[in-house]
What we know:
The chain has one domain: Rossmann fold, CATH 3.40.50. The chain is about 35% helix and about 20% strand. It is built from seven helices and seven strands, in the order ααβαβαβαβαβαββ. The protein has a seven-stranded mixed sheet with strand order 3-2-1-4-5-7-6, sandwiched between helices. The chain is globular, with a radius of gyration of 16 Å.
Amino acid sequence: MTVTPPRPLSQSAGASDLDRRVQSFLVRHRNDWHDMNVPDVDGRSLHQLSLKHRYRRAVEIGTSTGHSGIWIAWALSKTGGKLITIDIDARRHGIAVANFREAGLADYIDARLGDAHEIVPGLQEPIDFVFSDADKDWYTRYLEALGPKLRAGGCFTAHNVSSSGMNGISEFLTHVRALPDGETTIDTSSSAGISITYKR
């Protein structure tokens, strides 16, 4: 996969030292995101969603080694928010924490090592934004746990929804499209696909 580096922030008006640090980090590591990380184009989509709506309290289920978390937390650094990100794998968690620190975003991220099945139901409201990218057969359960805690205008996103053959994806899409207080679209910027559900 060919990854296009982010446009140098020095060309953007108002770029901060943190912007330049994150951008430099992403350029240095642009070929390092394997191990179940999102592609660059999906990271950008998550960043833009969070920034556009000024989300502040975000949850990520499935940290991997931190690519999506960096894009989300970068947006939250501008809104005064913070990301809670969860992963069950100690190796991936350790790499992600190191990446968050190197990118300069550690202060905007609460990285939790543990089982999302146990952690997610205990998360407190209000929540503005959710990105689900862990076990697909639990997507519907994560939505059921966090949907009621999403504020009006908040957003629940899920990765790999274009892979309808994956266990749980069809069930999840049927469920999310039937929500009486939700409006769902699919971002197909990458072949993986991201479902985007806004809470009315």
